[in-house]
Amino acid sequence: MAFREKIAWLALGTMLVAYTVYFTIVGPTAGFGEARMVDIIWSFGLVATAQAVAMIVGAIAIAVTATKEASASADERDRAIARRGATIGYYVLIVGMVIVGVVMPFSEAPWKIVNAALLAIVLAEVTHQAVVLLSYRRGWHG
Amino acid sequence: MAERRLTNTIRTLRFHASEMTQAELGERIGVTRQTVAATEQGKYSPTLETAFRIADVFHVGLEEVFRWSEDES
């Protein structure tokens, strides 16, 4: 498996675990910031920090086992796959931002808007990594 | 309807070039071993520049490396 494919698996795995924990356990415990908006910062911040630490530790472990690949720069296929992932993830983000920034302000409370924005960002990034993985596994034909 | 698919002879050309490894070919054309493997398996269509570099390595024309095959689908 290619070094960048392993990194994509790591990113997808850590994100799915971390943000599932946020939206099902940590978020509800903090009331999703309904009572105090500042609760969103520490609860989401805690989960995001944990995910970042897991990502860094995992990336170091992968790089140690594949030193040569890790030091090599991305080639044309890696770049094409990364572009495809970013492009499709961008569309998901745009849809999320339209809902959050244009639709929700007319009917929803601020704490819901903030959490919906965070969800949109997470979904966009999950889509990005999923497309990258799919492209590595099933092929890329421009 | 017949669907055209790009196939290649890289595996055969490597065999005839003293069993050149995918890693070695990748190094000579500036891509990773995984990209060479994906190209051989038809999972990746390389850029025109890389296609020409592959042909150059084996001293053959582009059409001897890549060609269309017609599949009935």
Summarize the structure in words.
The complex is a heterodimer of chains A (142) and B (73). Chain A is mainly alpha-helical and 142 residues long. Chain A contains 5 helices and no strands. In chain A, α1 (3-29) packs antiparallel against α2 (38-65), α1 packs antiparallel against α5 (110-138) and α4 (76-103) runs antiparallel to α5 (110-138). Chain A starts with a helix and ends with a helix. The model of chain A has no long low-confidence stretch (mean pLDDT 92). Chain B is of the alpha+beta class and 73 residues long. Chain B has helices at residues 10-16, 22-29, 33-40, 48-57, 62-65; strands at 2-8, 66-72. Chain B has a two-stranded antiparallel ribbon with strand order 1-2. In chain B, α2 crosses α3 (33-40). The radius of gyration of chain B is 12 Å and the shape is globular. At the A-B interface, α4 of A face α3 of B.
Structure summarized in a few sentences:
Chain A is mostly helical and 142 residues long. Chain A contains five helices and no strands.
Task: Please give a handful of descriptors for the protein shown.
heterodimer, A: 142 residues, mainly alpha, 5 helices, 82% helix, B: 73 residues, alpha+beta, two-stranded antiparallel sheet, 2 strands, 51% helix, 19% strand
Low-confidence stretches of chain B: none
Task: Describe the global form of chain B.
Answer: globular
In angstroms, what is the radius of gyration of chain A? 17 Å
- The whole-number mean of residue pLDDT values of chain A reads 92
Largest sheet of chain A: none
Helix percentage range of chain B: 40-55%
The tally of helices of chain A reads: 5
Gross geometry of chain A = flat
Mean pLDDT of chain B: 91
| Biggest interface, residues from each chain | A-B, 14 and 14 residues
Number of DSSP-assigned strands of chain B: 2
Computed CA radius of gyration of chain B, to the nearest angstrom: 12 Å
How would you name the oligomeric state of the polypeptide chains in this document? heterodimer
Write the H/E string of chain A, N to C.
HHHHH
| Structure classification of chain B | alpha+beta
In whole angstroms, the N-to-C terminal distance of chain B is 6 Å
Stretches of chain A where pLDDT is under 50 for at least 5 consecutive residues are none
